[in-house]
């Protein structure tokens, strides 16, 4: 019995492009995944190759229509001004358009730095430019580790940004911990605060990452599960009954050893969730 959908951020490099991510998800036994639609560190867009869309859609369908997300470029700054703001909107709209073509449900973006009002306006303009309707992909603003002028480290700021809009939120556990939310001590309380400020129904995606940096350090550096400063407390996030059905994506270091460790840890946690739930129902 599985309470969540889970997977990694997968690569689209190689001849298969985005379809290669589906093949890797199948090989690893994942129940969801996240990808970039283009290089995350370049403004250059990427055209979907001949047959790539069809292979991607068919592959997901054969695996039970795995839930998926696109992560927007790291260069996007929706709080900027001038040319950078315009380029950010265009790049995000490109990802939203690709998500719609591929049938991907979620697109996540870092809010950026600058004015909160411009972030909300920029996100809504990207949705308009991509002509995303009510049934199109959902755009999510990700909480940040904070530091400098970065917006989004506080849940109340994200709540303001999405209020009265179709926008949602992606909750990153490493970022929240680095921003000062005590996930290592009181994960239940943090999830309750997320619900009170945002509403869990508006948080379809969880980035499940441990943290290299200390609590409140504002250091955005992910660690493998149980190998960072949050540690075993992340199990309570995975097992939280109100997070069932969410997509959990690990943005951890990739490689056979790292993947094996993170999957074994997460699957052990999921088994313990089931045991706890069965015990409570007896």
Please give a structural write-up.
The chain has 282 residues and is an alpha/beta fold. The chain has one domain: Divalent-metal-dependent TIM barrel enzymes (TIM Barrel, Alpha-Beta Barrel). Helices cover 40% and strands 13% of the residues. The protein contains 9 helices and 10 strands. Helix 3 links the parallel strand 3 and strand 4. The mean pLDDT is 95. This is Apurinic endonuclease Apn1. Belongs to the AP endonuclease 2 family. One of its GO terms (biological process) is base-excision repair. GO terms for molecular function: deoxyribonuclease IV (phage-T4-induced) activity; DNA binding; DNA-(apurinic or apyrimidinic site) endonuclease activity; phosphoric diester hydrolase activity; zinc ion binding.
Overview features:
282 residues, eight-stranded parallel beta sheet
Q: What is the gyration radius calculated from CA atoms?
A: 18 Å
Instruction: Please list the strands of the largest sheet in the order they lie side by side.
Output: 1-10-7-6-5-4-3-2
Strand content: 5-15%
CATH architecture: Alpha-Beta Barrel
What count of domains describes the coordinates?
1
State the fourth-level CATH superfamily: Divalent-metal-dependent TIM barrel enzymes
Described by the principal axes of the CA atoms, the overall outline is globular
Helical/strand content category: alpha/beta
Q: Total strand count, please?
A: 10
Mean pLDDT: 95
What is the class in the CATH system?
Answer: Alpha Beta
Organism: Allomeiothermus silvanus (strain ATCC 700542 / DSM 9946 / NBRC 106475 / NCIMB 13440 / VI-R2) (Thermus silvanus)
Enzyme class: hydrolase
Protein name: Apurinic endonuclease Apn1
Cofactor: Zn(2+)
């Amino acid at each position: 019995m599985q309470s969540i959908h889970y997977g990694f951020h997968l690569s689209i490099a190689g001849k298969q492009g985005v379809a290669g991510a589906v093949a890797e998800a199948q090989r690893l036994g994942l129940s969801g995944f996240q990808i970039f639609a283009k290089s995350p560190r370049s403004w250059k867009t990427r055209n979907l190759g001949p047959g790539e869309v069809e292979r991607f859609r068919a592959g997901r369908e054969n695996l039970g229509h795995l839930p998926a997300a696109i992560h927007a470029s790291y260069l996007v700054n929706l709080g900027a001004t001038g040319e950078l703001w315009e380029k950010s909107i265009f790049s995000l709209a490109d990802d939203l358009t690709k998500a719609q073509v591929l049938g991907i449900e979620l697109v996540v973006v870092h809010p950026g730095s600058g004015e909160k009002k411009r972030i909300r306006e920029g996100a809504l303009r990207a949705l308009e430019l991509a002509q995303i309707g009510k049934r199109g992909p959902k755009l999510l603003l990700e909480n940040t580790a904070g530091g400098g002028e970065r917006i989004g480290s506080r849940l109340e700021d994200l709540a303001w940004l999405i209020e009265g809009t179709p926008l949602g939120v992606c909750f990153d556990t490493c970022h929240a911990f680095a921003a000062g939310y005590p996930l290592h001590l009181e994960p239940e309380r943090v999830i309750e605060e997320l619900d009170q400020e945002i509403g869990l129904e508006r948080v379809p995606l969880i980035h499940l990452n441990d943290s290299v940096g200390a609590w409140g350090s504002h250091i955005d550096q992910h660690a493998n599960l149980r190998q960072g400063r949050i540690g075993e407390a992340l199990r309570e996030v995975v097992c939280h009954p109100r997070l069932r059905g969410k997509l959990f994506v690990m943005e951890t270091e990739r490689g056979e050893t790292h993947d094996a460790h993170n999957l074994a840890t997460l699957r052990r946690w999921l088994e313990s969730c089931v045991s706890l739930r069965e015990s409570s129902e007896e």
